[in-house]
Amino acid sequence: MMKQAEVTMPGRRDRGTRIRPSARILALSALLLVANAGFTSALATKPVRNRSAMAAIPAGHYLPLYADGMPALEVGAFSMDRRPVTQAQFLAFAHANPTWLKGVDAGSSAPGRPMTGVTWFAARAYCAAQGKRLPTTAEWEYVAAADEHHRDATRDRSFSARLVSLYTTRPEARAGGAGERFTNVYGVSAMHGLVWEWTSDFDGGRAEHSGHRMAGMKQEGGHHAHMLFCASAAIGASNPGDYAAFMRYGFRAGLTRTSAHQMLGFRCAANG
User: Fold this and answer.
1) DSSP one-letter code for 135
2) Which residues lie below 8 Å from residue 172, measured CB to CB, with a gap of 6+?
3) Beta strands 54-57 and 18-19: pairing type?
4) Within a 13 Å sphere around the CA of 238, how many CA atoms are in the beta-carbon half?
5) I need a labelling partner for 228 at 20 to 30 A (CA). Which of 3, 45, 76, 236 fits?
6) How far apart are the C-alpha atoms of 248 and 4, rounded to whole Å?
């Protein structure tokens, strides 16, 4: 019978401390659980700041682009920032929490423009400091489906074509453009054609409220991920005519939590 292999813990070579792999995995898992519990607890106890700048979003349903036979997801009532987080807002937070200044241009000359170039971790930390959180993919897409008069305009071909036009506008022409001016029926602005935006479960994580995994969003092993950049992307899609959604899914599929894209910003959400 073979003996279980042993490994030396990093940083402890002088003492020759050894630990079984299974024990080390258990120890790391425990640390991650404690860290996550601390973050969740801090978020739950912090009051929401500046709720007046948020739009109240009623409960409803959202059918993912790749539903794979699942029923539409229930989206509970929540609140969402009316506009993306600005450079001034994020930098005020980062100066008070210098950890988040790393890799950020702290000398911005456009304080009112959306904050971009920040990781998923930085965006999540900012929202938590406001007593908020990042919206789930289902929540973001649910709100993004609205035009000025309808809660779901995704079957309207003219609306879909309009969004594609906004997404393909040159970056230098986006400031003050149609995408920034577009305000939907909920009173939420600039969701399309200004910057892309982080969601909490963009990489296939479990949605906070629905308990469902975001179909088609899993980074590794998702059977739709390889299709997002070719003509076969429409196969199995719940709405093959929603071209703007394909573009968003394709963009998210290329992200990791440490991505810091200069056209990627965020906005926050809150329960209730």
Assistant:
1) P
2) none
3) unpaired
4) 16
5) 76
6) 47
Position 225, amino acid: A
> Which residue shows structure tokens 């897409």?
141
pLDDT along the chain (272 residues), means of 10: 39 39 38 41 68 96 74 92 97 95 82 95 98 96 96 93 91 88 97 96 61 40 45 49 82 93 96 90
All domains in the chain, ordered by first residue:
56-271 (3.90.1580)
257 contacts 203 by C-beta, under 8 angstroms: yes
* Strand order across the 54-57 sheet: 54-57, 78-81, 269-271
Ranges assigned E (strand) in the chain: 7-8, 18-19, 54-57, 60-62, 73-75, 78-81, 196-197, 264-265, 269-271
* In contact, 183 and 148? CB cutoff 8 Å: yes
What interhelical angle do 243-253 and 137-144 show, nearest 10? 150
Helix (H) or strand (E) run with residue 244 in it? helix 243-253
Q: Are strands 7-8 and 73-75 parallel, antiparallel or unpaired?
A: unpaired
Report whether 19 contacts 9 (CB < 8 A). yes
pLDDT at site 48: 93
CA dist 67 to 73, 135, 199, 221, Å? 9, 19, 18, 16
Extended strands (E) in 163-204? 196-197
Size (the chain), residues: 272
pLDDT at residue 240, rounded to an integer: 55
Nearest partner of 257 among 195, 203, 220, 214, judged by Cα:
203
